[in-house]
Protein 1
Amino acid sequence: MSLIRHLLVIAILFGASVTSGASAQGSSLARSDRASTTSSVPAEVLVVLAKEEAGKIDPQLEKLTALRRPPFNSFRSMTILSRPKLKLTPGKDALVSLPNGRRMKLTLLRVMPDGRYKVKAAINRPDKSDYLPLLQVVASAGDPFFVAGQTYQGGTLVVGVIVDPKKSAQ
Amino acid sequence: MESPKTQDDKLQMFFDGELAPDEEAAVRRDLEGSPEGAARLREWEQVRAAMKGVAAEWAGEIDSDALFARIENEIGAPVVPIERPEHGQPALHVVPGGRERRVWGGVATGFAAAAAIFLAVMAWPESQLDPSPITRGSEVLEADFGSNTGTIFEVEGGAGESLAVVWIDDEEVGLP
């Protein structure tokens, strides 16, 4: 009878260790995931020239259904001008040159408790602060935020920023 | 003169043969002195003779000495342990392999419980394991448009999430 009890205790302890191991693995993955994102997070900047004139919509933008909704639905053509990928490091500015001579400065401020990323953005000419001095946004992984309104070559620049740990930076 | 009770007691002792010889002779004379007493005396002698005859027969048939000797032998005999029959109680037989089956049954039960716990934990929604809820989309916390004017929009994404759009009025700038 004591042998049965010992075996039962061993089996229950085994099950508990397996479950706790699985939980620990999950939590450790979450921690490592957040740690890696805290150290460096891949991001992508989508620079689109949108015009009200009839034209083509870049096929790569078809998945971004938000660009077909207001306030973007007045544009009938969209062309991707550049699609730079970069890494955002907390406290370190990442610069992206825009076709109009301005530069977009992105800074990862922190990873929120809910997993979203708090990002600071600014768009200005070099050594100037005449356009967008400050913008602070929180975004979940893979969900973009847009800055639009700059006029360029008869159209409007639409800049989308996507922070996504799954994307690899160039 | 004796009381009736004393006379009855003396008669009883006379019939039982417990009186002294002189008293027994005196009682016998009194009984023989009356017809009723003589009749009672005759009945008593008949009963006494019959009882003596029966007692003599029993005494001849039963050997009391042998009987008591046998009883004493039985009491003084050593205790002999009772031998159990080899196959007396089949219900109590040990079935070969029964213990092993119980052991493996316990092991199987334990592993089944562990597996159930494991599956329950693995099947538990991750959102309930992670205390922080998953929030989708993006939103503007702070915006400084400087000398320009701007508008903050929310546009619906492909999964229904809310995406932030900052629209700033601008005059085209030339390349530096």
Note: The longest strand of chain A covers residues 41-51.
Protein 2
Amino acid sequence: MKKVLSLLGRYYFVIVFLALLILPRYSKDYVLVLVSDILLYITLTMSWVLFSGPTRYISLAPAAFFGIGVYVVALLGMSMALPWIIAIAACASFVIAFLIGAITLRLRGIYFTMATFGLMELIRHLILWWEVNISGTVGRVVIPLKYTTVYYGMLVIATCVLLTVFFLGRSRLGLALRSIGDSEEAAAHTGINVTMIKTVIFALSTVFMGVSGVLMATRWTYIDPRIAFNALYSFMPVLMAIFGGMEKMYGPVLGAVIFTLLEEILVTKLPYHYMLIFGLVLVISILYMPHGIVGLIRGWVKGGER
Amino acid sequence: MLVRILNVVFDGLLMGGIYALIAVGFNLQYGVARVFNISHGEFIMLGAFLTWWFYTQHTVSPFLSLLITCPFLFFVGYILYRGLFQRIWRAAGSAEIYEANSLLASFGLVFILQNIALLIWGPEVKGYSYLTVPVRLGEVVFSTNRLLSLIFALAIGFVFYVFLSITRLGKAIRAAAQNPRVAGFMGVNIGQVLALCFALGVLMASFSGILLSMMFEIQPRMGLEYTIIAMIIVVLGGLGSMPGSFLGGFILGLVGSFVSYTQPGLSLVVYYLFFVGLLIFRPRGLWRK
């Protein structure tokens, strides 16, 4: 019995995954939409952690890549099969992130942060200018997908991100990334191509953001640059990762679940208060729980042992 | 044609004055106090909104209300540094962790300040007209408030430069910018000086907000764009260099006015490309190799 329990404890994520797999057969649309939201935030947060966690280079651009995915849908509509649209969004995110990374990741980390911070506004202004001056239409109507399609799509992406983070953490590449975070100079001296690794992993991490943008785009029936590029999608992953703690994989996931539910409850009742509260939570987390929930739990476990 | 070019150049210089103030403030916070303050633009927004509020609700002229707005926001900045960033500094242990954590905390501040403004004033775009009487200089025409804001920006830049070069506190600030630890050993009250630098940065932001509110429409989410502009100018002029930022502000102002003359709506895009070009060819600033 004890053996079964410890096995369960170890492979709980398999059970969660199986439960999520059969969820659409038994639940209402509302639950499905909510769980898709949670999966979206898990994807955004985990793909942020994938690069920014080990290297400590702070990217403020999740919203930009999410928006790229959304806008690929807005531009192409559903004129192609969904897999093609996903492939195009993934390529677009990868190429743009690769360029930004190649330019800034050879410099000090702060330049990378600046470049990513401006990226969302750059793309938004560019698209707005294009639509006003050249194509003459601002905003587009999108044909919605079925809730179950979005749900399964998000489930696949979220699983992919989690597996990527898991296996990367165990690979030589992951070790190289962590050593860059600890001491970039030392890492370079051991023969790691520092800039290349950072750039490729950053670009890879944005692919997930772009693809989740494609799937979530179909939720809005109407898209314009202001809707697609919203700074909220850069802020939430940072908040969720910091609050959850980045040292263990369950940290960001827990953060994502908690804040998606909170957002769901508060967004209609207190539209401005809730972002104010989330901002305060981020500041307080940085001050009083720098290792997030993961750190708190570790503290309790250690305290119990003593 | 010449008149048009002169007009564009003048517009650029007028805007450049405000950009210079914004960038010097940002550079004080990052170059000296080591806080990469993403919420810089939000203090510009607060300055603008407080001025609008005083003018439209209480008919206090902007140049009078700044006597309340500026000290108030200066105080807020001081408290913020003492209460928040200094604590992060004590907890951090290393300069890199401090830089990352203070950056993320200021990212949180963006949403706090923005939503406070949204709660108080609502999401609508606001504006007022003040001193819009046109001034003629030969063939070139512009409004009085623009000219006044340029004069103010230049005056503040000059006063600040003199303050940095002559006074004891200015010397302490320059010492802290070079090496805070050693400056501390030399008897500089480093906590106090860094807090004052951060607060001075907020002061510059609120001042530019006041000037901006006289010329443009304002809304609670206006800050982001100015933060980006501040970052670009600071890279242009070199991190930590105050004269660099001041001049850089005018350069970017000129670039912006030429772009918006030919293609309005593209100026931020051109700024960003300009920034990328700098990162490729001159990452340490236009003047430093």
Note: Residues 2-32 of chain B form the longest helix (31 residues).
